[in-house]
């Protein structure tokens, strides 16, 4: 699959402070790309450079095979974290204005707005002022404005903040559908559960440096610890535990089993496989629980950032 | 370009639709005219009240001839009643005051011992009138004492009207000079008002975009510089519309008011002048002089004036409003603007004061010349100087300086603007602004 966006060795400095230090990212077409990182890591700086709000001090950005240029503005949709609308302007007029700034004709913008307003069932708001809407309602309008010009690249910075769970779900569904229709999505967030749910690829930025990137599954594989959560009903738990400790690394586990049995986290050591562990367990009693502990995005985030901070 | 047009359009509509704009536009001329009408009304009312002043002349040197009645002051001779009686009578009665002229050995002593008693402190006009009457009589007496022939003095009076020319043969006069001062001052004040009203309106609009957090959405679609320019032009257009409406409304109201209340605007103006001035103005307004003024106006280089007016008006407005935009971008709310407003308002005020005090007296003196070249003051000062005739090369230098500074300031302002609009939280210092200017890209 080809890349829609290639970021090559981008450097951005503000005075003495380096916000981005030689960052490179490749974002495949038609994917949801999670851009993760703690506060102040440089995510917003990078996003602003992609949006041509600021220029990089070094490095280049290629969008769909072309060097990033002002006319690409029309192919990018951006929902910033710090977002808002003109409070005293009417919803419809405002949406038309913002759509026209993105290069749509007035007639085309009106047509597409009608589609989205019908879809979200908010046609009645057209003549209301933004200040009359609730925060969640305004966010919906903002989302529509962001995607209206059907950009190739959509950038969402914390898109779910300000939404209640139901509307957050609605927006998540819309984002995934946009991807399925061919859009490429950069998704910047702290909320790791939404990363699991939505992202195909992730990159982790910390302290101005990219410390990790790749397909979410690959990253997870990279961070797997070969640890299994096991639960077994056995007549002599003490003996089983002692025997396991000889061949594997064993940690106490914290989960609930329906009947009282032995629960443990078992980490494979060199030379033995999951099957070795399983076959030993089955010989000792009834195995009720056997799950690999796959690191969550959250675990990876904390682990990677933590390691990076120590170095 | 299309985007710039869109931004200008939005800014214009947002401004014009605003309730405060409507109120300002339609109510303030009403209030203005209403206030003028009130002042005139009160002035007339005041004039209607006649002050009756009585005098007690023990010196025997004065007569009713010396105290001529005016519209507002009437004199009465109470000498026969005696000073003490008169004083008592006036204190209890309706008369305004008593002038006491005691008997003295010499005119000099008399001049120092005249007294005036009144219930309240008399106004300047009243006391001047009394003094003028007394002085005239005493001076005449003194001249007679010195053996000067009063008839001859009277016969010797002559008044001159110096006709002024410049070397290209244009005629001018005091009156025409006044006219030029008028044109220049109106233009200068208009510019100052425009800059303050619409410059701050640009600033407010920038702050609004910051506080509503729409700014980042907008700058991902247009260049910050385009946005700033659109804002400045949009607000200026709204301002022009407002000025035009004001002009039309004032014209209408003037016509309505003068036909309705019988107010004569020229009467209002003469009310504050001394009789001599008023007389001169009346003469001027009648017949030939009026024609001459008209001719003079036509003789002024109107096309050049108009062009220069447009140039300095917009040059000045653009220069200042880009600074206002930069301030708006630097702060989060309006209260934080104070520290940055001072350095902008100062040259503006300075320009108006230089214009009002120096240019009027000495349009081509060093102070006027210098300030009409300094770009921050030149729009106002030069506008005031231009009607007096300024050498083309001086105007060219001043315009070039303004243009260069304008470009430089817009460049600096747009740098501050570009960084500032995305900065929240801390109130910036001048040092921060300097840092922003030095950021690349």
TrEMBL record, chain A:
Entry keyword Nucleotide-binding: yes
Keywords: ATP-binding, Nodulation, Nucleotide-binding, Transport
Domain ABC transporter: 5-232
InterPro entries for this protein: AAA+_ATPase (IPR003593), ABC_transporter-like_ATP-bd (IPR003439), ABC_transporter-like_CS (IPR017871), ABC_transporter_ATP-binding (IPR050763), DrrA1/2-like_C (IPR025302), P-loop_NTPase (IPR027417)
SUPFAM superfamilies for this protein: P-loop containing nucleoside triphosphate hydrolases
Classification via Pfam families: ABC_tran, DrrA1-3_C
Chain segments annotated as transmembrane: none
Molecular function, one GO term: ATP hydrolysis activity
Isomerase listed as a keyword: no
Sequence similarity: Belongs to the ABC transporter superfamily.
Name by which UniProt lists this protein: ABC transporter ATP-binding protein
UniProtKB/TrEMBL annotation, chain B:
Pfam families xrefs: ABC2_membrane_3
GO molecular function: ABC-type transporter activity
InterPro entries: ABC-2_transporter_component, ABC2_TM
Positions of transmembrane segments: 21-43, 181-202, 240-263, 300-320, 340-360, 367-384, 390-413
Domain ABC-2 type transporter transmembrane stretches: 19-414
Major subcellular site: membrane
GO CC annotations, alphabetized: plasma membrane
Superkingdom, taxonomy of origin: Bacteria
Subcellular location: Cell membrane
Gene3D superfamilies: Periplasmic binding protein-like II (3.40.190.10)
Recorded topology in the membrane: Multi-pass membrane protein
UniProt keyword Oxidoreductase, yes or no: no
Keywords: Cell membrane, Membrane, Transmembrane, Transmembrane helix
Name used for this protein in its record: ABC transporter permease
């Amino acid at each position: 699959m080809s890349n829609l966006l290639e970021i090559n060795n981008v450097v951005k400095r503000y005075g003495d402070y380096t916000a981005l230090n030689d960052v490179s990212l490749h974002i495949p077409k038609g994917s949801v790309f999670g851009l993760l990182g703690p506060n102040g890591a440089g995510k917003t700086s990078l996003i602003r450079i992609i949006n041509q709000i600021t220029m990089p001090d070094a490095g280049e950005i290629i969008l769909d095979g072309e060097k990033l240029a002002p006319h690409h503005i029309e192919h990018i949709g951006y929902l910033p974290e710090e977002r808002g609308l003109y409070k005293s302007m009417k919803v419809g007029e405002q949406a038309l204005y913002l759509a026209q700034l993105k290069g749509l004709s007035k007639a085309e913008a009106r047509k597409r707005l009608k589609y989205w307003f019908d879809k979200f069932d908010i046609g009645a708001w057209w003549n209301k002022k933004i200040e009359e809407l609730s925060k969640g309602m305004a966010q919906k309008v903002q989302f529509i404005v962001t995607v209206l010009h059907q950009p190739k690249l959509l950038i969402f910075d914390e898109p779910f903040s300000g939404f209640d769970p139901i509307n957050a779900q609605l927006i998540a569904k819309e984002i995934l559908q946009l991807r399925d229709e061919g859009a490429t999505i950069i998704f910047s967030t702290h909320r790791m559960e939404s990363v699991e749910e939505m992202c195909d690829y992730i990159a982790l930025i910390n302290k101005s440096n990219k410390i990790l990137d790749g397909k979410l599954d690959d990253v997870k594989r990279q961070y797997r610890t070969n640890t299994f959560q096991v639960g077994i009903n056995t007549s002599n738990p003490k003996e089983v535990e002692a025997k396991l400790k000889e061949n594997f690394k064993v940690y106490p586990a914290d989960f609930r089993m329906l009947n009282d049995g032995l629960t443990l986290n078992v980490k494979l050591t060199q030379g033995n496989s999951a099957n070795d562990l399983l076959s030993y367990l089955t010989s000792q009693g009834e195995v009720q629980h056997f799950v690999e502990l796959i690191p969550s995005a959250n675990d990876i985030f904390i682990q990677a950032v933590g390691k990076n901070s120590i170095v | 370009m299309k985007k710039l047009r869109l931004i200008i359009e939005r800014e214009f509509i947002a401004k014009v639709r605003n309730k405060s704009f409507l109120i300002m536009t339609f109510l303030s001329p009403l209030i203005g005219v209403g206030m003028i009408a009130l002042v005139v009304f009160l002035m007339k009312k005041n004039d209607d009240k006649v002050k009756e002043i009585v005098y007690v002349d023990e010196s025997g040197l004065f007569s009713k001839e010396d105290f001529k009645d005016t519209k507002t002051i009437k004199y009465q001779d109470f000498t026969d009643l005696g000073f003490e009686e008169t004083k008592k009578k006036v204190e209890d009665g309706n008369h305004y005051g008593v002038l006491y002229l005691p008997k003295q050995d010499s005119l000099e002593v008399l001049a120092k011992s005249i007294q005036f008693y009144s219930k309240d402190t008399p106004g300047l006009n009243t006391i001047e009138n009394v003094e003028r009457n007394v002085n005239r009589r005493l001076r005449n007496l003194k001249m007679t004492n010195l053996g000067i022939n009063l008839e001859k003095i009277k016969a010797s009076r002559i008044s001159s009207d110096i006709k002024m020319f410049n070397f290209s043969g244009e005629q001018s006069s005091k009156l025409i000079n006044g006219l030029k001062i008028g044109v220049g001052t109106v233009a200068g004040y208009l510019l100052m008002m425009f800059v303050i009203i619409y410059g701050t309106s640009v600033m407010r609009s920038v702050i609004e975009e910051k506080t509503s957090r729409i700014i980042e959405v907008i700058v991902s679609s247009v260049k910050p510089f385009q946005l700033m320019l659109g804002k400045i032009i949009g607000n200026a257009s709204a301002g022009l519309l407002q000025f035009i409406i004001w002009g039309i409304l004032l014209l209408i109201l003037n016509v309505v008011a003068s036909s309705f209340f019988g107010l004569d605007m020229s009467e209002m103006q003469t009310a504050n002048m001394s009789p001599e001035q008023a007389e001169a103005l009346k003469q001027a307004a009648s017949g030939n002089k009026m024609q001459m003024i008209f001719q003079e106006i036509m003789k002024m280089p109107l096309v050049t004036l108009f062009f220069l007016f447009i140039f300095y008006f917009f040059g000045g407005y653009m220069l200042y409003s880009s600074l206002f935009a930069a301030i708006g971008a630097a702060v989060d709310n309006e209260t934080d603007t104070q520290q940055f407003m001072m350095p902008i308002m100062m040259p503006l005020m300075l320009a108006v004061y230089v214009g009002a005090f120096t240019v009027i007296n000495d349009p081509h003196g060093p102070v006027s010349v210098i300030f009409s070249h300094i770009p921050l003051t030149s729009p106002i000062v030069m506008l005031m100087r231009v009607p007096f005739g300024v050498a083309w090369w001086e105007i060219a230098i001043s315009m070039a300086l303004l243009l260069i500074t304008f470009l430089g300031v817009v460049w600096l302002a747009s740098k501050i603007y570009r960084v500032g609009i995305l900065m929240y939280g801390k109130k910036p210092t001048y040092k921060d602004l300097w840092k922003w200017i030095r950021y690349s890209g």
